[in-house]
Amino acid sequence: MHYLTRRETFNAAHKLANPDWSDERNKEVFGKCANHNWHGHNYDLRITVSGTPDPLTGFVMDAKVLSTIVKRQVVDQLDHSNLNLDIDWFKGIQPTTENLTLKIWEHLEAEIAAAGSTLYRVRLYETENIYADYYGPAGRN
Ligand SMILES: Nc1nc2c(c(=O)[nH]1)N=C([C@H](O)[C@H](O)COP(=O)(O)OP(=O)(O)OP(=O)(O)O)CN2
User: What domains does the chain contain, in order, with CATH numbers?
Assistant: First the structure.
């Protein structure tokens, strides 16, 4: 089994805060990420597909086709956005790194399957020190 990864980047603003909590409680739980006036990240996204290389092309999946899908389904929607205000993916859930990987998976899985490949992992770096991996609802296999 081979694993092919495509990197894409986007930047976006967000804040982490529960609207039902006081400012003090939000600060206690989310720290500076709860700042009222937002903050931004340069997100670094790594999308991995799995499969056996085609005997004629040697590709698990054409990385250019994968890039086109990721740009259309994710980057073009999230880049230069405010995740809390502009993106309905995050209505009722916090735009954390974990929830971003979940929503990105949901927006990619069917498109990648339709292109004949299998989504294996969504990895998203929020900062150079923080990243989340999501392997789909069934977990890693
Ligand atoms: N489990 C999670 N924890 C945190 C998340 C997250 O998405 N999932 N996000 C944040 C904040 O968004 C925050 O902005 C992270 O930025 P920062 O603290 O600057 O990040 P670093 O840890 O890389 O910076 P240091 O300077 O090393 O503190 C927080 N937690």
Answer: 2-134 (3.30.479.10)
- CA of residue 84 to ligand 1 center, whole Å: 17
- Note the pTM of the prediction, 2 decimals: 0.95
- Ligand 1 touching residue 29 (CB < 6 A): no
The predicted structure's pLDDT at residue 112: 98
What is the rounded average pLDDT of the residues 34-45?
A: 97
Among protein residues, the one with the nearest Cα to ligand 1's atom 27 is: 129
Q: Is the pLDDT of residue 141 over 80?
A: no
- The closest residue, in CA terms, to atom 25 on ligand 1 is 129
Q: How far is the CA of 51 from the centre of ligand 1 (A)?
A: 33
pLDDT tens digit sequence for 3-23? 999 999 999 999 999 999 999
Q: Alpha-carbon torsion 124, 130, 135, 141, what sign? A: positive
Separation between Cα atoms, residue 1 and residue 10, nearest integer Å: 29
Query: How many Cα atoms are found within 13 Å in the side-chain-facing hemisphere of 137?
Result: 3
